[in-house]
Input
Amino acid sequence: MESSKLEMFRNRLVKVYRHLSKQARRQHISCYRLYDNDLPEFPFCIEFYGERICLSEYKRHFEMGDEAHHVWLEQCVSMIAEVVGLPAEAIFHRQRRRKAGRQDQYERLNERENFFVVEEAGLNFKVNLTDYLDTGLFLDHRITRRMVRDESKDKRVLNLFCYTGSFSVYAAAGGAASIVSVDMSKTYLDWAHANMRLNRFADAVFNHFEHADVLQYLRKIRPGSFDLIILDPPTFSNSKRMLDFFDVQRDHVQLLNDTLSALSADGILYFSTNFSKFMLDESKIKAASIKNITKATTPFDFQGKLSRFCFKISK
Output
């Protein structure tokens, strides 16, 4: 690749690293996004996880030959390492692809299991930069997690599509009376349980894990069973473990109304979706108030680049 383009990439990294690392230090944050496809010639997402970097490469519209790509990637890794002051061995490269369905999230990319622990807001989480499609900690929900922690005192909390349970850990840290975490994946439920144990919140008396299809689970629980619910569904799922495929745009009204039925009279529902073209059909949702908190929950490292929506809904 032309040296001028590499220098352009370097200059961009220097600029954003100087700016974002300063904000991260000021807020005592060690896991944050540095770069996300800022320059089309360098289609990367670069994220800090403590003293390691996850370097995700987006699929290009044009392809390099294998040898040319290898040389180019080595040059990029070397440059990133130099700019951020980490050894090249601390940068973990992965191909990033668009998920065809929720079941892809559960696929293991490698047969290894390379876990390590990172800290966020005084809490610890297991992450993995090599073996799964996602790392185990969604950095864009950092502020939303804090809001859940602040709302959880003495509440009965339900975490739907819980993934690795980060919201559940925050709810426990906030003093929740009880927490139920629901997901279809045994792998991620085990991961969520491990995150709870890591933070010494594994007491089975108030902590329960449900291996279930969320859509079916909601139809079985008593109305008004929970005071605070976190709902972060996939955009689309055609998992064999579900009775039907799920599409968040098509199905969100039914999903939200079923979830609101499980909520107590004064309860709060946090609902988010990564579908960039999502349109909330507010008139059909049986709620007292719906507040779009997308902007309020957008962290400093995602400003202008966040393609998800977040709502705070009161029954």
Remarks:
- The helical segments are 3-26, 66-84, 142-151, 166-173, 186-198, 214-218, 248-261.
